[in-house]
């Protein structure tokens, strides 16, 4: 019964998005243009996964550093390095790293795109989405712009993405609603820009991980 209700809610939500709201686009454009103007970004975040049908949830904390087309992401026991073309995923528990080329697809869910291109959080709305500006919400004493996106292709596994932006257009939170009743929420707890960054932090160096097993998936 829960799953049926979730599916009905998904289709009801998609029907609410009749167009691309110009006021929503203004907010999205300002946020995207602002973040793309920085030389580098350092973010601390919390990631929440919820399974409504099974009443389960998991929370992880992480850090993300972005400079140009490079980034480094630390979440739990996993560190991901990316140079824009390939991705190195290091698992500390097993001391192994998997190297694979980045293969982005329009069919990727937002959380999948995030793992290969974190900046996609800010730009995904530009192609294949309708959007709507909701009423402002107050979180932690701060007033937030709230924008909702819905995919134009109803075959996507998710039916809605909700954004919360501060009044100066800094992303605070994003939540993805999946048709199967799962939810993904990313909350930015710290946001620093134009900091002094050691370039070596963004590159995987096998010398720093003695005995590491390398699994190379590149051709």
What would a concise description of this structure say?
This protein has 219 residues and is of the alpha+beta class. The chain has a single domain, classed as Lipoprotein localisation LolA/LolB/LppX (outer membrane lipoprotein receptor (LolB), chain A, Clam). The protein has helices spanning 2-16, 22-36, 110-116, 120-123; strands at 40-51, 56-67, 70-75, 78-82, 86-91, 96-101, 129-139, 142-151, 158-165, 171-178, 182-193, 213-216.
The number of helical runs is 4
Largest beta sheet: what is the strand line-up?
A: 7-8-9-10-11-1-2-3-4-5-6-12
Between the first and last Cα atoms, what is the distance in angstroms?
A: 47 Å
Strand residues, percent: over 45%
CATH class: Mainly Beta
The gyration radius over C-alpha positions equals: 18 Å
The helix/strand class is alpha+beta
**Residue runs with pLDDT of under 50 for 5 or more positions:** 3-15
CATH architecture designation: Clam
How does this model look, in words?
- The chain is α+β, with helices and mostly antiparallel strands and 219 residues long.
- The protein has a single domain (2-216), classed as Lipoprotein localisation LolA/LolB/LppX (outer membrane lipoprotein receptor (LolB), chain A, Clam), CATH 2.50.20.
- Helices cover 19% and strands 46% of the residues.
- The protein contains four helices and twelve strands, in the order ααββββββααββββββ.
- It has helices at 2-16, 22-36, 110-116, 120-123; strands spanning 40-51, 56-67, 70-75, 78-82, 86-91, 96-101, 129-139, 142-151, 158-165, 171-178, 182-193, 213-216.
- It has a twelve-stranded mixed sheet.
- A hairpin with a 2-residue loop joins strand 7 and strand 8.
- The longest helix is centred in the first third of the chain and has 15 residues, at 2-16.
- It starts with a helix and ends with a strand.
């Amino acid at each position: 019964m829960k799953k049926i209700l979730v599916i009905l809610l998904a289709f009801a939500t998609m029907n609410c998005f009749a167009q691309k709201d110009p006021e929503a686009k203004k907010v999205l454009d300002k946020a995207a243009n602002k973040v793309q103007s920085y030389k580098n970004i350092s973010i601390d975040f919390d990631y929440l996964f919820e399974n409504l049908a099974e009443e389960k949830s998991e929370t992880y904390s992480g850090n993300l550093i972005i400079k140009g087309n490079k980034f480094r992401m630390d979440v739990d026991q996993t560190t991901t390095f990316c140079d824009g073309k390939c991705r190195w995923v290091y698992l500390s528990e097993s001391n192994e790293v998997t190297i694979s080329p980045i293969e982005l697809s329009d069919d990727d869910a937002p959380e999948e795109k995030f793992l290969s291109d974190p900046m996609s959080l800010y730009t995904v709305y530009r192609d294949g989405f309708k959007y709507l500006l909701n009423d402002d919400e107050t979180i932690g004493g701060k007033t937030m712009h709230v924008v909702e996106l819905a995919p134009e292709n109803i075959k996507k596994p998710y039916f809605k993405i909700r954004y919360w932006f501060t009044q100066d257009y800094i992303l605070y939170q994003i939540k993805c609603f999946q048709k199967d009743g799962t939810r993904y929420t990313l909350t930015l707890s710290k946001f620093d820009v134009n900091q002094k960054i050691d370039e070596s932090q963004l590159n995987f160096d096998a010398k720093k991980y003695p005995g590491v097993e390398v699994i190379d998936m590149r051709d």
